[in-house]
Amino acid sequence: GQQLNQSPQSMFIQEGEDVSMNCTSSSIFNTWLWYKQDPGEGPVLLIALYKAGELTSNGRLTAQFGITRKDSFLNISASIPSDVGIYFCAGLDYQRGSQGNLIFGKGTKLSVKP
Amino acid sequence: DAGVIQSPRHEVTEMGQEVTLRCKPISGHDYLFWYRQTMMRGLELLIYFNNNVPIDDSGMPEDRFSAKMPNASFSTLKIQPSEPRDSAVYFCASSKRDRGSNTQYFGPGTRLTVL
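Structure tokens for the assembled complex are given below, as produced in the milestone run.
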């Protein structure tokens, strides 16, 4: 089945730094979503992308839907301590079921530099 | 506006016992999804419903797992009998098809521990 490769697996940030993470797929998705998960909570939607080439911002977060429809990136500018958590990309797969379902990356764990 | 509600938040049970997890989707959403999250396998889709009808249950690990959605505002995921390898966080998510897409909103999850 379809798989998403999300990188990096983990990264350490210092307050004020910009952060970048991405997801790639071997096949095409119709929608890319970016979620953040805090400990003990469910994933919370950050940004949804519906069209190839689409660039969308949500505050300090910016995400793009790759032109090939096989990749997406998420950037966080001027990181702050509350950005710590696990970020997941997800692609919507219309091949599995008539309405599709989400395929999730393994996540990027953001931690604060000691 | 209330989000997806799940109960219980934590469940500890012994191997062989029946476990029932509950979910109330966001009002007006017509899709409901059950996921399982583990360190090893990440987030896995178990089953999803559209208008209370199960559409794809190919992710259900085995016959010990069953899910129902008797009405638009309630769903259950049952494991009987439970086994230690079922220990995981189970998430329910709901969505409403819009603009040709299907953005899912997750509940807080139920952390299941089977001893």
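Residues 9 and 108 of chain A are 5 Å apart (CA to CA). The two ends of chain A are 39 Å apart (CA to CA). Further analysis is deferred to the final report.
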